[in-house]
From TrEMBL:
GO terms for biological process: proteolysis. Residues 152-452 form the Cytosol aminopeptidase domain. Keywords: Aminopeptidase, Hydrolase, Manganese, Protease. SUPFAM superfamilies: Zn-dependent exopeptidases. InterPro entries: Leucine_aapep/pepB, Macro_dom-like, Peptidase_M17_C, Peptidase_M17_N_1. The keyword Transmembrane helix does not apply. Gene3D superfamilies: Leucine Aminopeptidase, subunit E, domain 1, Zn peptidases. The lineage of its organism: Bacteria, Pseudomonadati, Pseudomonadota, Alphaproteobacteria, Rhodobacterales. GO terms for cellular component: cytoplasm. It comes from Fuscovulum blasticum DSM 2131. Residues 14-123 form the M17 aminopeptidase N-terminal domain. It holds the Pfam family Peptidase_M17. PANTHER family: LEUCINE AMINOPEPTIDASE-RELATED (PTHR11963), PEPTIDASE B (PTHR11963:SF20). Belongs to the peptidase M17 family. This is Leucyl aminopeptidase.
Amino acid sequence: MPPAFAPADSATLPFHVVSPDGLEAFLSGPGAAHAGWLTATGFQAALGELRLLPGADGKLAGAVAGLGTDKARARQRFGLAKAVAGLPGGDWHLEGTLTQDQTAEAALAWLLSGYRFDRYRPGAAAPALPRLKAPAGLDTARIEAMAAGEFLTRDLINTPAQDMGPAELEQAVLDLAARFGATTQAIRGDDLLAQNFPMIHAVGRASPREPRLLDLRWGSTGPRLTLVGKGVCFDTGGLNIKPSNGMSLMKKDMGGAATVLGLAQMIMALNLPLRLRVLIPAVENVISGNAQKPKDILTSRKGLTVEVNDTDAEGRLILGDALAYAAEEETDALISMATLTGAARIAVGPDLAPYWAQDDAMAVALEAGAKAGFDPVWRLPFHDAYESVIEPGIADLDNAPGFGFAGSITAALFLRRFADHPRYMHFDIYGHSPTEAPARPKGGVGQGARAILNALPQMLGI
C-alpha cells in the first residue's frame, strides 16, 4: 500500500511528544493522569523513547514519546520514528508543542517507517501499522508524495538482480509512465550501436540481458529538467572482476536509476509545472567472451575517446553517452545520480549524498531543499586542477586514472566532459542503509531526491 495519512474523520489516539525540558510541565499538566506510571517506568523523554498509556478500562489510552535534546536530534535524523515502530496499529494524532520543522520531520518519519519489503516472504503476516492523522498546517500531499517516491526507490534497489535486470527496469519505467501519462522510448541491444551509444553497448554487450537506454518524458509546459540515472542492474566488475565481498551488494548499482525514478514520481504526483525528461542507461556488467577488455579504447557518442583502464569503472562510461545525449537537447537543468565510487563513501560515509554543481545558485537552492527535506547532502568541488589526471595521453579520457586520490572528484570531472551544460549537477550516492536506522531499514534507500524536489522552485523558477 502507498504511504498515506489516516482519514481526517477517523477516531484517533493521542501521541504525545515531550522534550526533556518540557517533561515536568507535561507530568503536571496533560500527562498528570499517567504521571505515576511514567515516573515508575523511568521515562526521561529521550529521543524515540516510548511509553504506551493504559486507560482506566484496561484499553490503550494513548502514547507518549520523547523528543530528545537538540544534540540528540542533530545526531539522529528521524529519531522519533523509533517510538512509532513500537506502536500498535490504529490511528493517532500528534500532541505537544512542536515547531513546524519538527512536525514535518515527525510526519515524514511516520510515513517512511511504514516501509516493508516483503516480496519474497508471501507467507509472512503483515502487522497492522499505526497511521497518523495529517497534522494541521503541513503540505501533507507533498509529504505523501515524498514518502511514496522513496518507497519506489527502495523497492527497486532491494529487488535482486534476478528480478531486476535491464528489461525489468524498463518495465518499472513503463509502469510509472502509465500511472502519470508520460511517454517512453527504449533503444536496445545492437540498436545502441546503430544509434551511436557505443559506451552503453560496450558495457552491457557481455550479458544475455540486452543493454538499453530508457527515455521517459512528462509535462508540456514550464522549464525543462533532465534527470540521468545510472542503471547498472548488477556489476561483477567485468574482466576486472570484483572480490566476492565487493560484489555482494551490487544489486544496488542501479541506485541512481531507482532514485531518479523515485524523484520523477514525486514530481509527477505533485503535478509540478515543468517538463521532465528521465534518461536511464540500463545494463548488466558481466563476463563473457565478448566483454570489453582493459586497455580497450572506446569512441563515445560525443566523439571523445576513452581508454578503459578498469572495466569496473563502467558507470561513468554508460553515463557519458547518456549525458551527451541529454546535452544535445535544450534543458534548464541537468542532474545525474549514480552509485559511482567507493571514494565518495570514504569521503563522507553512507549517510551523506555528495554532489557537484556547476552553478552556485543551484547549490544554494539544494542546500535549503536538503534541510527542508531532512535529506543531507554535501558539496564537493569540480576541481579543475585535477583535469589532467583523467587524460591518459593515448586517448582523450581515462575511465580509471591511477592517481590514487580524489576518486569521486575525478569521476565527476569525467562526467562533466560529457554533460557540457552550465547548470549541471552530479550526485555520487550510496543508495543503501548498512544498518537499521529510524525510518530507514537496512537495505535500499534514496538519497538526494527530496533535496532536489524542494529545491526545484528556486532552481527553475516554478
